[in-house]
Design a protein that fits this description.
There is one protein chain. With 615 residues, the protein is an alpha/beta fold. The protein has three domains: 4-281, Thiamin diphosphate (ThDP)-binding fold, Pyr/PP domains (Rossmann fold), CATH 3.40.50; 309-472, Thiamin diphosphate (ThDP)-binding fold, Pyr/PP domains (Rossmann fold), CATH 3.40.50.970; 488-614, Rossmann fold. Strand 3, helix 7 and strand 4 (172-178) form a beta-alpha-beta unit. Helix 1 (4-28) packs across helix 4 and helix 1 (4-28) packs antiparallel against helix 10.
Length: 615
Amino acid sequence: MQPVELTNALSDVANRLRIDSIRSTTAAGSGHPTSCASAAELAAALFFAEMRLDLENPRNPRADRFVLSKGHAAPLLYSVWSELGVVSAADLLTLRRGDSIYEGHPTPRIPFVDTATGSLGQGLSFGLGMAIAQAADPYGARTFVMMGDGESAEGSVWEAVELAGRRGQSNLVALVDVNRLGQSAPTMYGHDVDDLAARYRANEWHTQVVDGHDVAAVLDALEIARGVSDKPSVLVALTYKGRNIVDVEDAEGWHGKPLPPEHADRAVAHLESLMSGAPAPAPRPADPGKLATRPHMKLSGLTYDLGDAVATRSAYGDALKAIGVEYDCIVAVDGDTQNSTYSERFGDAVPERYTEAFIAEQNMVGIASGQSALGRVPFAATFACFLTRAADQIRMGGISGTNVKLCGSHAGISIGQDGPSQMGLEDLALFGTVPGCVVFYPSDAVSAARAVELAANHDGMCYVRTTRPATPVLYSMDEPFEIGRAKVVRSGDGDVCTVVAAGVTLEQALEAADTLAAEGVGVRVIDPFTIKPIDAACLREAVSATGGRIVTVEDHYRTGGIGDAVDQALGEVAGVVHRRLAVDAVPHSGKPAELLDEFGISARHVVAAVRDLTA
């Protein structure tokens, strides 16, 4: 039995949250007040009675964390922090303005927000990643994820539900706001909370169905969840969209619509009439703490001999293990490809910091992003082609400025016999569009290992593209590498053309250079190392020295790859003639060497392109 004073106070908090959500959305002229209203009691109970908070340092690792997966209810979250005294009433009224951090959907520009949400279905994966990171610490912190019933149609939700249940992730608590109404029609589940609850229960969650507007019932359910130690918990809460808002509650056609001013005034007056005047309870405080400062990480203990044939994916595994053993902030996630990406080397060495996400790439990326919010440096790997499944999680990670590191192996037609469904040919285009993402494309074992080292130390998203076939070791172990600095691997005073290649095509370019050199034709061969940022200065200098002639050759579709990056780097440089060799059709199974030749990116095609440009 909950004290009446507490339940009355929290009911008042819930109605004040509704009032603030109405006022801010009406002032903005847009927003989702009805979606805020349905979850008001859930939020009041969480923040003012259950969660352990650090109001001065919301990212304190000893504090509980909250993810608003139904990000369109952002005004509710901002109103909570206003009720807590962190956000001013005046700031609430800047909602959705261009000069405000209080955007239509939350982003980490706000100190109490860990991830951008609003692309529905992603919050639970992110929360699972946070909970995994929290469980490694002795503080007993938990993660709470508020979800909508509409987003429960997303497959990524159930990827997270299944894995969290199988892991017994007991420090993860989900609250599903089942308000029945979606954007355009009733949701898949409507108000059938028992059906939704059964699905969680079947996936090994401790499940409670609750009246989401009964504060005492919500508090009781949260108290029970607190005592569950062997599985994640979910409160499936039956609620009503627009709760306590006159002429709006449980009515269709109000999603994403603010109340007109006169209607807002009437709604506020009604909400005020429901309140007892009780002050908000003080939230539970968390112990003081702060995220650990990440060290500068140095890779050591690896040796590769010049000329040896080593796959860059193998070097990725070597480097991840080497740096992971040395620095405990490194964690790894894989999607059931660990024996191909070689993440298994890390997992075997430090299993307590390895997460197997199985064949669920959206959840894999979400978990990695969640771990990064707790100060970890996560590396997540799978085949390059499968990362396209997680394109939206990657896009949202870019918006969040997440510090996740992604590795896509088996890139390009060079994987051979497995065929086009396994060939990553779109990945450079995908990652090239993500703001702030560094795109590494190493061409040998040494550069792959250094890419891992540089990615670990870089503050922001990184993508490392690795390949299946072994390629010759080109660089000595003491060769320095930098983000945005290319390597000129072949040059001479009389060079007549520049060739830019990476990964398996760099080997083809060097073979072509040897053939041309025997004919007395010199070419300058450049290994870009990073495709984004690309070394524009190096490229411009090379093109200037080689008569404006340049060939790019890449194991990627034509759009969005090396050729496009080179064009952008050269910009308005006059007199440039650029011949682009890329995969221009859907490939098929075959031997790698045969496919490289058939699709126009082998050494003989490089030779032909140079001859044509210099004829």
